[in-house]
Amino acid sequence: MPVRLVPATPSAYAYPLLIKQLLLTPLAIAPEQEITYQGKVRHTYRTLRERIGRLASALEGLGVEAGQTVAMMDWDSHRYLEAFFAVPMMGAILQTVNVRLSEEQILYTLNHARADVVIVNSEFFPILAAIAGRLETVKTFLTIEDGGSAPISPVPSVGDYEAVLAAASPDYDFPDFDENAQATTFYTTGTTGNPKGVYFSHRQLVLHTLGCAAALGGAPGQGHVHREDVYMPITPMFHVHAWGFPYLATMMGLKQVFPGRYQPDLICRLVAEEKVSFSHCVPTVLHMILSHPQAKETDFSGWKVLIGGSALPEAMAVSAHKRGIDLFTGYGMSETCPVLSIAHLESADLARSPEEQAVIRAKTGRPIPLVDLRVVDAAMGDVAHDGRTTGEVVVRAPWLTQGYLRAPEASEELWEGGYLHTADIGNINPAGYLKVTDRIKDVIKTGGEWTSSLQLEDIIAKHEAVQEVAVIGVPDDKWGERPLALVLLKTDHVGTITENALRHFAAHAIEAAGISRYGVLLQVRFVKTLAKTSVGKMNKRLMRADPDALCR
Questions:
Q1: Which range of residues forms the domain containing residue 247?
Q2: Which of 64, 228, 514, 536 could form a disulfide with 282, with the two C-beta atoms 3.0–4.6 Å apart?
């Protein structure tokens, strides 16, 4: 039966889903709401709109046209928020540069993205000095002097960010255009080869914002985000748009607090002074904050923190609960914009003990609206939703990247079979909660069975002496691989426990948990540090390559 289309009225407004539409609500209901940078610089949403117009006018004056790329090299700031809007709203593409990559990788990403303009904080002038002579497409530099006496720019600059904005007009008329136009690009933090370029359209970013708002706003209590919340990102704005939450916070008109570079003492102060109530980060960053001496004097009660990037240890969820922190998991990846699922608790679950709640909080969550998430076998058939049967997590949603920038073969592999392949292994329980049990490349193949490194990590993390742990597979002539736990002890427990004692603790817990019998083959080694990626995730590839290096 043919589908009948309803004809459009010639004068009707088609309403393309453009990033500029996210500014309508805050300007209507919260124009005087505050945006602050480190508690030093304070603007209102009305001023934000003016500065967005000024930045666009300045860029247009520098010759930036629709389709060209403007790269940003800065810490989390009000300036980054302005670029999140101004650059794509004028039809250009915003490249968020991962400033924690190596100089060679940063050079690669700027050249591969074909950046035309670079907005750069003076703190990154040494990087710029090392790569400027090899930049292939960049024609213009706009510099940021972030307080104090700035060093001399190693490249010709059109001026300081604030001075250039002050001289530009706030009255930029942002046009309508195709909502499928590319808005942003950034590069994955993968641990092998060159980073891959991931890109998103206006439509995708707007729908991701709406999906997250529906999921967080629909929570009955735990993890509920509302207009009176105070938002502070602790996931870099260069990484998947700080997981998309600055767009969400702006659309909802929340007070926003930008901390710049992540310094635990500053973050503790901002949480206390600015009354921050919603943030997001990876587990290692939260651990860094809560382990700082100032954290002992900080009241964290009422702080909602969404954890992603790495598995949330149940022990961390319990510890946070005791400090009044509402800690819960979200799931996604660079290629998915990123949020796919959130682990909210039902109201009845809140009557459970902190330990019982932690089991749910540490799961990967249930899909947010518009996400079609499956766990499949090798033939792309759905596995049983019994909380035990595992398979690969595949997904469809309207905000997933359509591929990798100028990498057609990798793009086809990513979307094989019409679903985006996450390369994560997991299971779904009868209540619909996804639990990611490992990355395909990190699962330990021992004795002919698969053993989850994440499950072993969660068990070891429960010991009071353990600060951080990473479990990797190491070659073994008899078993193929054996699990090796690389353990960073808490400072006050160094010398109070032996590797053998911790191995016995883990072996008993592994057996009691009913994990594969090969899990008890676990070895334990105390280390001085754990290798991490540029965004704070465990870098197991480097650990597998030379675990002894961590002990030196």
A1: 202-368
A2: 536
